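hiii so um. not sure if this is the right channel but i have a protein structure encoded as tokens and i wanna go backwards to a sequence. like what aa goes where. can anyone help
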């Protein structure tokens, strides 16, 4: 059988191959719909589709093709490698995509082409130390995703976080300096007080969203279990959401400080603006630790170490009880003045 012979050659060449005849024991009892979706959307480096009339008719192959196409769309590189036994049209597979014609290609020739494709992006320690630090820009990130060296998932995660923090460096410096451009004017004391109360409620929502994000993420789901590649799209999404929460806190503080309020509300406004201080600081400290850990782990992997490496990335945003008490006290003073 053509496909079986290709798989046999690849396996003999130490390439990791997902081929149903090799997976009967591991697939036994699994929910194939979920498992095959995971394989084709997250675990594989490439997906070779053997196009034929039989392939188009089968239910499972249609499911596999949809999962592979979703992965190709998300990651933007030539993940799907078509190999044609005939000219059958496969939904979602454009006829402009280059393919290998199996009518004129032997199984050993196809296996050699697949190995060449794999070797073209295989990490080689001799390349230099390019992949021992997090990517500094988009070009570095694209190269990391192209080559996918050891620990690439963690380097990608740390790089997106570091770049995201750097993009908002100006806003962070404003935050530290207590500066904010004026955005809104409240002439009424009651109206200004309502604004500050509403802003405190908004901050609770921002923090709750971040807590939900972190608690809902499965590390294995995005970084991959041991020996299995991670999900680049999931990693980018997770990291960008953390950066977005950080930005929301900076923007929140700026909106509070930028509000022109009557004299009665100025002290309360300044107290409320400090609510994000500890959270912003803790997020920055966490990201610095993540970058340090992933770079140290990449260096160990690059040196050939297989020892376990523990990374503790917990984030617990604590309330400043003294600050809360001060705001409650000031709020009571403001309420008495407004009502009198």
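sure thing!! here u go:
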């Amino acid at each position: 059988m053509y496909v079986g012979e290709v798989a046999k050659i690849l396996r003999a060449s130490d390439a990791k191959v997902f081929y149903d005849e090799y997976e009967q024991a591991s697939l036994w009892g699994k929910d194939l719909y979920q498992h095959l979706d995971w394989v084709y959307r997250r675990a594989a480096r490439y997906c070779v589709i053997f196009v034929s009339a039989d392939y188009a008719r089968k239910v499972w192959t249609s499911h596999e093709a949809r999962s592979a196409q979703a992965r190709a769309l998300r990651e933007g590189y030539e993940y799907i490698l078509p190999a044609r036994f005939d000219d059958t049209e496969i939904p979602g597979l454009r006829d402009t995509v280059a393919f290998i014609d199996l009518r004129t290609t032997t199984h050993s020739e196809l296996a050699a082409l697949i190995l060449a494709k794999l070797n073209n992006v295989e990490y080689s320690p001799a390349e230099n130390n390019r992949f021992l630090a997090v990517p500094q820009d988009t070009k570095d990130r694209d190269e990391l995703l192209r080559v996918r060296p050891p620990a690439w998932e963690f380097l990608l995660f740390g790089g997106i976080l570091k770049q995201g923090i750097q993009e908002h460096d100006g806003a962070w410096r404003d935050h530290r300096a207590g500066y904010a451009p004026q955005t809104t004017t409240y002439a009424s004391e009651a109206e200004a007080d309502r604004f500050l109360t509403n802003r405190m409620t908004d901050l609770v929502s921002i923090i709750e969203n971040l807590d939900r994000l972190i608690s809902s993420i499965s590390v294995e789901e995005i970084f991959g279990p041991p020996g299995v590649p991670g999900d680049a799209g999931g990693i980018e999404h997770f990291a960008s959401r953390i950066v977005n929460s950080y930005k929301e806190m900076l923007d929140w503080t700026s909106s509070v400080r930028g509000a022109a309020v009557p004299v009665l509300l100025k002290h309360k406004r300044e107290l409320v603006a400090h609510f994000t201080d500890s959270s912003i600081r803790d997020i920055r400290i966490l990201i610095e630790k993540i970058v340090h850990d992933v770079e140290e782990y990449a260096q160990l992997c690059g040196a050939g170490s297989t020892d376990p490496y523990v990374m503790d990335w917990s984030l617990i945003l604590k309330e400043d009880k003294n600050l809360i008490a001060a705001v409650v006290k000031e709020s009571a003073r403001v309420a008495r003045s407004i009502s009198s």
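oh and The longest strand covers residues 47-51.
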